[in-house]
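S1.2 Input.
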Amino acid sequence: MCKKFLIASAVLGLMVIAAFSGCVEDTGDKIISQSFYGEYNTNENTTLTVTNRNGDIKINTCDGNTVKLDVEKKVSEAHEDELDKTEINVTEENNEIIIETIYLDQEKTRITVNMDITVPDYVTVKSVQSSNGDVTIKNVEGYVSASSSNGDVEVRGTTGVGDVSSSNGHITVEVFDFLENINISSSNGNVVVYIIPSFNTTIDMQTSNGDVSVSGITLDKTLDEDTHVTGTLNGGGYKINIHSSNGDVELRKLNG
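S1.3 Output.
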């Protein structure tokens, strides 16, 4: 049985469109799903911050002038009651949109919440975090910081980047620009970073268990070991720290 109803609430702002359609669906592996869709007005000063606890986050650009949020909540049939104990909270204030998952029962986190978000190309994406899930961000405005405690992180085609990290997952980052020293690191996974060869930057690449490699970049090396490489590009500048505790670390050429 499918039920469709409107969520008409806003916290610190106006939620423009929010339709909640809960389709309880018993599949072969006894998974129940419920979906949420919302659209939120933007302007050229709008920023976006996203926090999820247990699930993937995908962000990309789209036509139009609204942020579009498509969420799917999934849980096993035995814990169907958790669907109503997990909320998607969207707030708007001072040109900032904040999307976060709220668990009303903090002791239970068996539910998975996957977010698919599209934004106009002028909206600035600031920070994206998942405690347990993959984070994928492509072709958006902003110097994006991204992290996952347990999942892969991929950042491509953004204006620039801030810190990017995963406690347990692979990382792939394209660095078109950065405004200060940045850290790109995984505790357990490979880290691949693409940078523009014309950057004035200082590089520190290190792994505790894996290999370090540089390709397509002429790095003036000050240290060259199998697991630790440091050096400068074009005289040096802000530092990019690229580290993994257990995985390979690679620096590659990015065609800017």
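S1.4 Remarks. The chain has two domains: 1-43+64-122, 142-256.
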